[in-house]
Write a structure and sequence with these properties.
Distance between the termini of chain A: 83 Å
Structural class of chain B: mainly alpha
CATH topology of chain B: Methane Monooxygenase Hydroxylase, Chain G, domain 1
Oligomer: heterodimer
Distance between the termini of chain B: 29 Å
Number of domains of chain B: 1
Order of helices and strands of chain B: HEEEEHEHHHHH
Number of helices of chain A: 24
Strand content of chain A: 25-35%
Shape of chain B: elongated
Number of helices of chain B: 7
Radius of gyration of chain A: 41 Å
Helix content of chain B: 40-55%
Radius of gyration of chain B: 21 Å
Largest interface: A-B, 14 and 14 residues
CATH architecture of chain B: Up-down Bundle
Chain lengths: 1113, 182
């Protein structure tokens, strides 16, 4: 009749423990060396009631609502049960009592102490004491006869004595034990036990056996032993019916005998083999609770099957099983919390009591028990390693299924052994530590820290801001018992779950409020509890247990509410964005099935992500979710993988970092508190051996770099690819920000773009080196137009004409694209643009300025370089080029640009010319160019003039992209100047505007304009705005533009051209100066080069390139 | 050099602070500092850290060696060996004094650290005096002392040099004939 062993759980700190059941068997009561008595409603009760009774508790006994404990202050105390109020001191010894026990009726308590005495006290009147003297060593254990006639005691002196209570004399004594000097040295606790009811037998653990002595004759009747027992028996207990005897040994064995048959009916082993030091039989006989010296509590289940069938009907047994089910229903809900606090570790802390029952019972009504247990085990272990689950789980399963027929004979359905559903993870606040901790972080985000204290003296909340300029620190008393918090620059949002009497409340401290009422509070409807909350800019959102999200304004106005498809997991807010993660369904085998919604709550409300699944690592759960400082959604799972939303790839999630890789040991974790895209920083708190940090000492924030899991990042290629894509990903936010109307830092954007192009060029050069021309073209496709021209130059110099040709086709394509876009821009630029492919967008900005020159370059170069090329391509090109010229190139002419154009064009031309001449002289020339490039770095390279090999060609690999960089830099500065001007003029234009225009459009417009050079149309519009407005005074900005566009079109071509020229004409003097400088430099270089005399142009450019390389260094 | 000067030099040491304000990079002669992000540790010289601390603009993160366990180890080592042991920071005494005087609230177990550092200092000074004593009594021409910090050298320098000078004078007076050779 095997019974089932439940997994041990943490009960007390290490040390001696004792356990008993209450009279009804509803609770398990344990005591431990931490001085606490804990009352467990079930084994999986995560919030046991704790009563501190002293420094150390040696023994506990419970009867009739009196809890008697033997405490280290040498007293035996009474507490009321279950309230735990102290109810006086029963008796005192000169040293501590080792064992206390009640008699059958609960009227008396017997206690044996280390001062050799045994005392018997009336519970009702503690003055009536009887002291039994006679032991010569500390008393180990006492046991009262059920009929109140005798008392048995065991002592370290090696004797077990039976006393007549009446006469206070020893009636029998057996010297059967080993002598020891003290309880701590005693081999066994030697807990004695009278057979219940009749009291006919007394069981005495003696070494590896249990001796049974008969009442009255006091003779040894029988011995119970088993081969399994290899170490001393510590504890014995009788089943309530008196037919069975259970024993726990020092070696962690648990055995049950049928006493009459002297048959060992069950053998169990403690899962870790710790010493069993406390055992108690459930009053109804179904279970045995036991504790070990490591402070853990365990339960043997199904013992009832044997005893109860004998003792009572099957019906009661079934009922009992049901009770039991109820008891354990709640455990599933807590699994995740346990997971989070590293369930298996012995420091499992009691977790906040919660909440609605799970519906696992509905899933499998009859087999509910083993099923629950199975998932329980799975859950418990999956945070550790899946393999151990099976090891643990299998015997369990086997055991339980064998028991089942006996417990509930109705069950005959096949046992399901497919994938197990995972317990859905509980709702949490990202950046908070578990709610059951006394001192915890309720929120740690980029704004500040909210700490919650909930200890004996204080229930308070501390709010502290990283930046004291936002607000001074606050200390709030937490009378409502808030458990959730969020913090923004404007407000602190707090919420508590409801209780029976009180509704769930939301409290907002709106400290940035300008009136005198800084806070507001809202009660949720009865039965609805807050599960998660977050703050955005000007709004707050609360997700509730009613699967609803409620939006509030920051001032407390209730706004939209909407339903969620599943229970919320967490929420995050940033600006106008609201990110919600919720349970999309049931996950299996340790996986969570989460969905995510991203809403835009601004003026134009819309849903950006419509509940797509949120990707998580295998068998992990969501650990943090939020926004980067720049507003990109980001999530972290329990495996430490950080994922960032990639808006340019259809809102996919890209892993950008694995924090576990940087952890030193397996149990270390990083607790993420913030993500920054620019600079790329993952801010987190390293936690040694835990998932979250303690509040004290104050944890320090560490910064981790991002590292995308690209292949072969040890090679140069892999590295650069990783860098490039990371850079692309982390600068996506510029596109998003500008599209949603925020100001962006165009300088850093340009910087980023420069970096990306630089990387592309490096990769290009690398591929060239590896003779991967196809790859070169692929890379060139990612480049901006201007960089492609550089690549062409590079290719043609390294004598890869096929490549150069393909590239030039590509460049042409790009130019066309560019031109088309420009044309498009002319008109719809004023509408708020949807964010497009960032790459192209960026490139366009960079190029628009000089795109035309480059065009020109090509044009000049093509006839020479590609003479053999098909005629038609040139023609088509021209066809495309001409309109472009009209738009862009002609206005350039009056600008100082031609100077720089000369510089850039010529080198290319020469290489082309060299080729076209087809003479061998062309080759030295090309080398010449390259040599002079490298020369600035290594003048010695100049000697290699005649040598036309690949090596010298490849040398400028590094400086190459730099030269490009310089080029883009120039452009950037130019465009910047332009946009600045534009802004000015724009603001002027706004001044002119009579009617106040809504705040957003101008901002938007400014932004879009920042990104592209001023056009003639804009200039024209500025001048004519007044007249348009005069004609149509009620026009909004948009209308003005539209109207203006119409009018502009009616102008003659020449007039338009004039305007465009005007627009282009004002490239700023700064740029000119820079270019002049460049030219000077180039000239100097030229002079230094002897071979330069005739060929000004090629040298010019190469010199320029080298100058850049030099600059860079 | 007087102690104040040495302390001044010590103020150039870098220390981590957690600012509670936001500021861009600042460009100083000695180098660029920052950017300062609230809540994010940043390295600054001690002088700036203390200045900010006094204005309650930051919390100071104690240097790694300023930890009771590590200092205890050093103290044991120092007591065990006859020679000077390497010290985690060449300005340990000055930094301890500066940081503990101005930012004791940011340093856990400040008092213990103060005592430990004082112990180390005393042990080392005792060693220094002892070696100076044996140097003079044995009339050595030179001695090698490794791992001495600037502050420690400074405390004995003037005294030792002056006394050596005097002793030299006294000795040369004893042998007047010889002194003329010099």
């Amino acid at each position: 009749m095997p019974c089932e062993r439940k997994p041990m759980r943490y009960g007390h700190s290490e040390g001696h423990t004792d356990v008993c059941f209450d009279d009804q068997g509803k609770c398990i009561v344990t005591c431990g060396s931490d001085g606490d008595v804990r009352i467990w409603e079930s084994l999986d009760d995560d919030d046991p009631k704790s009563i501190n009774v002293g420094e150390k508790v040696y023994s506990v006994a419970l009867k009739n609502g009196k809890l008697v404990t033997a405490v280290s202050n040498n007293t035996v105390q009474i507490h009321t049960f279950p309230d735990g109020e102290p109810d006086g001191i029963l008796t005192r010894f000169t040293t501590n009592a080792n064992h206390v026990t009640f008699n059958n009726s609960g009227s008396r308590v017997a206690a044996g102490s280390s001062d050799f005495l045994v005392k018997m006290v009336e519970v009702a009147d503690s003055s009536q004491q009887k002291t039994l003297r006679g032991h010569d060593a500390p008393v180990l254990s006492v046991a009262l006869d059920p009929s109140d006639e005798f008392l048995a005691s065991s002592s370290c002196d090696g004797s077990v004595a039976v006393w007549s209570i009446e006469s206070q004399t020893q009636v029998a004594q057996w010297k059967v034990l080993q002598k020891s000097s003290d309880v701590t040295n005693a081999k066994s606790l030697c807990r004695l036990a009278w057979q219940p009811r009749s009291g006919k037998l007394i069981a005495v653990p003696v070494d590896l056996t249990i001796q049974l002595y008969e009442r009255n004759t006091w003779t040894h009747v029988s011995t119970l032993s088993d081969d399994l027992i290899t170490q001393v028996v510590n504890v014995v207990v009788w089943s309530p019916c008196g037919k069975f005897l259970a024993a726990g040994t020092v070696g962690g064995n648990l055995l049950i005998w049928d006493v009459e048959a002297k048959l060992c009916i069950d053998r169990q082993k403690h899962e870790k083999g710790f010493t069993v030091c406390g055992m108690a039989w459930h009053p109804s006989g179904g279970r045995i609770a036991y504790t070990d010296t490591e402070g853990c509590l365990g339960l043997l289940e199904g013992v009832s099957s044997s005893s109860s069938t004998v003792q009572s009907s099957k019906a009661t047994a079934a009922k009992e099983a049901n009770d039991y089910d109820d008891l354990f229903d709640e455990d599933d809900d807590r699994m995740l919390d346990e997971d989070m606090s590293d369930s298996r570790s012995p420091v499992k802390k009691p977790i906040m009591e919660d909440e609605d029952d799970d519906d696992d019972d509905d899933l499998m009504p009859a087999t509910g028990r083993p099923r629950n247990r199975g998932s329980f085990l799975d859950d418990d272990d999956n945070s550790q390693d899946p393999s151990s689950v099976k090891l643990d789980g299998l015997p369990e399963e086997g055991g339980s299924s064998a028991v089942l027929p006996a417990v509930a004979p109705v069950v005959s359905r096949p046992v399901y052994d497919g994938p197990m559903p995972t317990q859905p993870q509980r709702a949490f606040q990202p950046g908070s530590t578990p709610a059951h901790l006394m001192h915890r972080f309720m929120m740690w985000n980029s704004v500040g820290i909210v700490r919650g204290y909930n200890d004996d003296q204080d229930n308070a909340i501390d709010v502290e801001f990283h930046d004291t300029a936002i607000h001074h620190a606050m200390h709030l008393t937490n009378t409502l018992g808030h458990t959730m918090a969020d913090l923004s620059q404007e407000a602190v949002l707090l919420a508590c779950e409801g209780t029976d009497e009180l509704a769930s409340k939301i409290q907002c401290l709106h400290f940035s409020c300008w009136d005198t009422h800084k806070d507001w509070m809202v009660d949720l409807p009865k039965g609805e509890d807050v599960r998660a909350l977050c703050l955005g800019q000007g709004w707050a959102a609360v997700a509730t247990s009613a699967l609803m999200v409620r939006l509030f304004s920051i001032g407390g106005v209730q706004k939209e509410i909407f339903s969620l498809p599943g229970a919320v997991v967490c929420m995050a807010g940033h600006g106008e964005q609201l990110l919600i993660a919720y349970h999309r369904g049931t996950g299996f085998d340790g996986e969570q099935a989460l969905g995510v919604q991203l809403l835009q709550l601004g003026r134009k409300k819309r849903q950006v992500i419509h509940g797509e699944p949120l990707p998580l690592s295998r068998k992990s759960y969501l650990a943090w979710m939020g926004f980067s400082a720049e507003g990109t959604p980001c999530c972290v799972d329990s495996e430490g993988v950080v994922r960032l939303l990639n808006r340019t790839l259809g809102n996919t999630w890209t892993p950008v970092c694995n924090t576990r890789e940087t952890c030193k040991s397996k149990s270390d974790h990083y607790w993420v508190v913030g993500v920054h895209e620019n600079p790329q920083q993952l801010r987190c708190i390293p936690c040694k051996g835990a998932r979250f940090p303690p509040t004290l000492p104050r944890p320090a924030v560490a910064v981790l770099p991002f590292n995308m899991p690209y292949c072969q990042t040890t090679t140069e290629k892999g590295q650069m690819e990783e860098q490039y894509w990371r850079s692309m990903l982390f600068h996506n936010h510029y596109g998003f920000l500008s599209s949603s109307g925020y100001e962006i830092d165009s300088e850093s954007q340009a910087q980023a773009e420069k970096e990306q192009q630089e990387l592309l060029m490096k990769m290009f050069a690398l591929s060239c080196k590896l003779e991967r021309e196809f790859r070169c073209v692929e890379l060139a496709e990612l480049m901006t137009h201007s960089v492609v021209t550089l690549a062409i130059r590079y290719a043609s110099r390294s004598r890869r004409m096929a490549l150069a040709q393909r590239l030039s086709e590509l460049a042409l394509e790009k130019a066309n694209q560019l031109q088309e876009e420009e044309q498009e821009d002319e008109e719809p630029a004023y509408q708020s643009r949807e964010y497009r492919e960032s790459n192209q967008m960026n490139s366009r900005q960079a190029q628009q300025e000089n795109g035309c020159e480059e065009e020109e370059v090509e044009e000049e170069e093509y006839p020479q370089e590609e003479q053999m090329d098909a005629e038609e391509s040139t023609e088509t090109r021209k066809k495309f080029l001409n309109p472009f010229k009209k738009g862009g190139k002609s206005p350039e002419k009056p600008s100082p640009k031609p100077v720089s154009r000369e510089g850039r064009v010529n080198p290319f031309k020469v290489s082309g010319a060299g080729k076209s001449s087809g003479s061998p002289a062309g080759q030295p020339r090309t080398t010449n160019v390259l040599d002079s490039m490298t020369m600035s770095r290594k003048p010695a390279a100049f000697s290699g003039l005649s040598k036309q090999s690949k090596a010298p060609v490849l040398k400028p690999l590094a400086p190459k992209p730099k030269s490009k960089t310089q080029a883009t830099l120039l452009q950037m500065s130019a465009s910047k100047g332009n946009s600045k001007k534009l802004e000015d003029s724009q603001s002027e234009a706004e001044k002119v505007k009579p009617a106040p225009v809504a705040a957003t459009p101008p901002v938007l417009k400014e932004n879009t304009e920042n990104k592209k050079p001023k056009t003639g149309f804009q200039l024209w519009l500025e001048e004519n705005r007044k007249s348009i407005l005069a004609d149509n005074p009620d026009f909004e900005e948009m209308d003005v533009i539209k109207e203006g566009m119409g009018r502009f079109r009616t102008l003659s071509a020449e007039e338009r051209l004039n305007w465009t020229e005007k627009a282009k004409g004002d490239s700023d003097p700064k740029k000119r100066k820079r270019e002049d400088e460049d030219e000077e430099k180039a000239a100097e270089q030229m002079e230094s080069d002897e071979a330069s005399a005739k060929k000004k142009k090629p040298l010019d450019s190469s010199a320029k390139l080298s100058a850049f390389a030099f600059n860079k260094e | 050099m007087d102690p104040a000067e040495v302390e001044f030099l010590a103020e150039k040491e870098m220390v981590k602070i957690i600012p509670n304000f936001s500021l861009d990079k600042i460009y100083l002669i000695g180098g660029d500092l920052g950017p300062f992000n609230p809540g994010l540790p940043v390295e600054v010289p001690v002088w700036l850290a203390l200045n900010l601390k006094q204005r309650q603009k930051c919390r100071i993160v104690p240097p790694e060696w300023m930890d009771t366990d590590k200092l205890e180890d050093i103290r044991e080592q120092e007591r065990k060996l006859d020679t000077f042991t390497p010290i985690p920071n060449p300005y340990y005494m000055e930094l301890t004094k500066l940081l503990l005087n101005h930012a004791a609230d940011n340093i856990p177990k400040a008092d213990e650290i103060r005592t430990l550092v004082k112990d180390i200092w005393d042990t080392r000074m005792a060693k220094l005096r002892l070696s100076a004593d044996s140097f003079i009594s044995q009339q050595e021409a030179h001695a090698q002392l490794d791992n001495l910090t600037l502050m420690e050298i400074n405390t004995t320098r003037s005294f030792l040099l002056d006394s050596l000078n005097y002793m030299y004078k006294l000795r040369s007076n004893l042998q007047p004939g010889r002194s003329k050779d010099y």
